[in-house]
Amino acid sequence: MGTDNYPWYGHYDPRTPRHINYPNVSLAWFLEQSARRLPDKTSCVFMNSSLTYRELYRLSGILAEQLIKTGLQEGK
User: Fold this and answer.
1) What DSSP letter does each residue of 3-56 carry, written as one string?
2) How far is Cα 13 from Cα 11, in angstroms, rounded to an integer?
3) pTM value?
């Protein structure tokens, strides 16, 4: 994989890997694991507001419920 097909590689630090093997799990799985292991740790900060992993996990559940209520379906 040269920089011809991926021109942004030219801006990477030479030590940055071009590919990472990710486990075959969902993003939701990572969030749930983080909320279990680090519930009170800050997960994100934006404009002087922060959320813990517990709060982010709870809010993501609320968002998922609302999306399902609006008719969103997996794979559709």
Assistant:
1) TTT-GGGGGS-TTS-S-----S--HHHHHHHHHHH-TTSEEEEETTEEEEHHHH
2) 7
3) 0.69
